[in-house]
Amino acid sequence: MTTFEHTTLPQRVLFGTGRAAQNLAAEVDRLGARAVMVIAGPTEQPIAQTVTERITVALRYDDVAPHVPIAKAEKARAAATEHGIDLLVCIGGGSTTGLAKAIALTTGLPIVAVPTTYAGSEATNVWGLTEDSRKSTGVDDRVLPVTVVYDADLTSSLPADLSVASGLNALAHSIDSMWAPRADPINQALAAEAIRTLNAGLPAVKADPDDIAGREDCLYGAYLSAVAFASAGSGMHHKICHVLGGAYNLPHAQTHAVVLPYVLAFLAPAAPAAEARIAAAFGTAHALDGLNTLRARLDAPTALADHGLTEDNIPEAVALILPFIPDTTPRQVTPGNLEVLLRAAWAGTQPSSEGFLS
Ligand code: NAD
Predict the structure, then answer these.
(1) Which domains does the chain have, with CATH numbers?
(2) Residue 309 beta carbon below 6 angstroms from any ligand 1 atom
(3) Exposed (0-12), middle (13-18) or buried (19+): which is 146, by Cβ within 10 Å?
(4) Which InterPro entries match (predicted)?
(5) In whole angstroms, what is the distance from residue 249 CA to residue 67 CA?
(6) Which of 41, 64, 67 is nearest to 132 (CA)?
(7) What share of the chain in percent tops pLDDT 70?
């Protein structure tokens, strides 16, 4: 018998290459906004200028920083209030979307998101804030953008290495959704389609960063991944990355890119149905072969040692991560097998299901 409880988040999606400016103007009109605050980081300003050329902007705001420091969130909230803002438009990567979410969290202002990376934050109701080097996250429907405007042209300026890391971050959302706490047939179907699409788009973008069809695949795959992730919740992979990123200040996308194959190698033998779906999405006999092949084609980051984790950190990291591993994880996680996993990810040894302690 199949039994599940699924919630689909309400959100409008406008997808069209070369159409961001007109789609944004139509949304601002439809929402009846009179005072729009446009949020975009310094490097995202040229994109934001083009995208907003058909709307009237009350406030342009560029004080964006990674992981949304609380002081920056409070400053941005005050600016929104001072200017009588009634609509937030964020144009940029996950950090920019994150600042818009932080404003929406306390003000209830609606957001129209125009993403320029594959992070996927625009399709989730998850917020994150950092205070005293500690990142806290939460779920609140007020931070879910009412509309997402996708335009593959806006991602063309994302360099190939950042595109790869960001795309593998999206892939981590979909693969981890397969065994996350609220995994169900609906979010697994979205995740499988996301894996198939990213597996096609990412090598195309790596080979030619101007390949717009490949960019569209990546953007569509990133959206599906984020919807699956928002619905299924954080699985073992995201818990590991969240703790490592917070405790050792590791870069977000690269940490996901490195850790993912080791979690897949560890969990695949204990989750045969999920493994088979991931393999089918990759078009390979085994899920791990599909992921390893994709990572080789992308020349993906391979070792946490290259991104700031030291070998001495590993025992402490094991102790920090263990309490966060979801009870629903299909394989029992022990200090022993988690240490084997982290040591392999630190050194960048070829990910394999062999060698984990029981
Ligand atoms: P980011 O937003 O920090 O962007 C990385 C860099 O790329 C920045 O310097 C940015 O200015 C630049 N950039 C963005 N788009 C560009 C483009 N088209 N061309 C050239 N440069 C561009 O990084 P990210 O990976 O997009 O997002 C990571 C953040 O998002 C993390 O803080 C993460 O926790 C958060 N996130 C949140 C959720 C959620 O559901 N709340 C989901 C995924 C990620």
Answers:
(1) 12-155 (3.40.50.1970), 160-355 (1.20.1090.10)
(2) no
(3) middle
(4) ADH_Fe/GldA, ADH_Fe_C, Alcohol_dehydrogenase_Fe, MAR
(5) 11
(6) 67
(7) 99
